[in-house]
Specification:
By secondary structure, the protein is an alpha+beta fold. The protein has 4 helices and 5 strands, in the order ααββαβββα. It is 30% helix and 20% strand. The longest helix has 12 residues. The radius of gyration is 15 Å and the shape is globular.
């Protein structure tokens, strides 16, 4: 099982995101970006889902200089519909993109 502290430190992210962060650091760049989260597909036979996990996301991003916008916990959503948007400097939260 993955430890919460390892997630917070970015130890569970894909290597691609670590490389991106390293390259941006070497270039002294940290662009402001928006990350939009959605489920493009749902399991077969399901046309909607219930959004959960907002408290976990807020806990993960606590102390980070980012803005978070999203559906309220427990909202019904459909495939392709954004459920959460995170805005801020990429190097502050890009490692959580996995």
């Amino acid at each position: 099982m993955i430890d919460w502290r390892d997630i917070k430190r970015g130890k569970t992210t894909d290597v691609y995101f670590l490389r991106t962060r390293k390259i941006l650091g070497k270039l002294k760049k940290n662009p402001r970006v928006a990350m939009e989260i959605s489920a493009e597909r749902l399991p077969e036979g399901y046309s909607w889902a219930v959004f959960t996990g907002l408290e976990d996301v807020l806990r993960l991003l606590e102390g980070k200089p980012v803005d978070v916008y999203g559906l309220p916990e427990g909202s019904v959503f459909y495939p392709g519909e954004p459920v959460l948007t995170i805005e801020g400097r990429y190097r502050e939260f890009g490692i959580y993109e996995t």
